[in-house]
Design goal:
It is a single chain. The chain has 133 residues and is α+β, with helices and mostly antiparallel strands. The chain has two helices and seven strands; from the N terminus they run ββββαβββα. Strands 1, 2, 3, 4, 5, 6 and 7 form a seven-stranded mixed sheet that branches. A hairpin with a 2-residue loop joins strand 1 and strand 2. It is globular and about 40 Å long. The protein starts with 9 loop residues before the first strand and ends with a helix.
């Protein structure tokens, strides 16, 4: 039997990876919730893992990139049809060579972010990053 956290929220960590003035994004897999939307690398926390540790692990697992996690950029709680999520968005700096990211990832400038469709929980973060130019 598994136990959900008392809040009933799925804890998620996301890395806003910046390199050379651009951000790393990827299209969600077709078999995932919110398929086809664009996202920053990230995922669910594992038991005993801090949000910052999860953000760094997800960058390595999803994109093959080593990043240095910075400060928490924003905390967002959002109700989707499939789950209630608490998303910890972190700033992150690239440590390894960006040439290694898989094909589903791309680097985009702040002024390009609004042209990609992100999940609703990302709305405020995208708005803030788009104005950060």
């Amino acid at each position: 039997m598994t136990h959900a956290r008392a809040t009933g929220c799925v804890e998620v960590a996301v890395a806003i990876v910046e390199h050379a003035g651009k951000y790393l994004i990827a299209r969600r897999e077709e078999d995932a919730p919110l398929a086809g939307f664009w996202e920053f690398p990230g995922g669910k926390l594992k038991p005993g893992e801090s949000p910052a540790e999860a953000a760094a692990r997800e960058c390595l697992e999803e994109a093959g990139l080593i990043v240095e996690i910075g400060s928490e950029y924003q905390l967002v709680e959002h109700d989707y049809d499939h789950a209630r999520v608490r998303i910890h968005f972190f700033t992150a700096a690239l440590v390894s060579d960006p040439a290694g990211a898989p094909h589903r990832f791309r680097w985009v400038g702040p002024n390009e972010l609004a042209s990609y469709t992100f999940p609703p929980a990302n709305r405020d973060v995208i708005a803030k990053l788009s104005q950060a130019e």
